[in-house]
Amino acid sequence: xxxxxxxxxxxxGFARDFLEVVAAMRAYPKPLARLIEELEKLPGIGPKSAxxxxxxxxRTTEEEASALADAIREVKESIGTCPVCFNYTAGGPCExxxxxxxxxxxxxxxxxxxxxxxxxxxxxxxxxxxxxxGLISPMEGxxxxxxxxxxxxxxxxxGEFTEVILATNPTVxxxxxxxxxxxxxxxxxxxxxxxxxxxxxxxxxxxADDVTISRSLxxxxxx
Length: 223
Ligand SMILES: [Zn+2]
Description:
With 223 residues, this protein is of the alpha/beta class. It folds into two domains: 3-78, RecR Domain 1 (Helicase, Ruva Protein, domain 3); 88-222, Dna Topoisomerase Vi A Subunit, Chain: A, domain 2 (3-Layer(aba) Sandwich), CATH 3.40.1360.10. The protein is 50% helix and 12% strand. It has a five-stranded mixed beta sheet. α2 crosses α3 and α6 (113-122) packs across α9. The longest helix is centred in the first third of the chain and has 23 residues, at 3-25. The radius of gyration is 22 Å and the shape is elongated. The two termini are 40 Å apart. The site of zinc ion has 8 residues, from α5.
């Protein structure tokens, strides 16, 4: 039994949990059932976890529950997208774009804000960032037009960058996106590099440790 076998097994487990929770939901008062339903929509939360979290929230104090609800509301009301790099911001250019200490010569291109945070955690890149807000993925209906590529080209044309580092994930989608972006950037006469392997192929920057990210950045090669 390979990976497929274990995956099949997980699916059976998930289905069983789902049926158990559906049965239990009938016993729950409507507001509690609604909370479980909402929690279940979150990534990585299965029916059982949703039920456990909902029951936990029910046991917390009024203040604790309000603090969580307020935090969710506030993040939706106040967090937007940086008009320069498309990272998250609480208004205007984000902290990384506003930081005068950073190197205006090097631009690091990442797929999403989580990857940017992983790079920042590793602490090896002191230049600027550009968040594409996705990767080219025909399977998910993501074409180049859905990404912040025109904005990237405009930044490179107008900025003082001497190098663009393509730090998209080492997946099929990440590689395809890097290749596509490199083809558009090279005619602008700029040095375009791709982070080195060392990161697991098919992996996610967000799950890589800081040393691996730093090494892959140091070992980047010109495209
Ligand atoms: Zn920014």
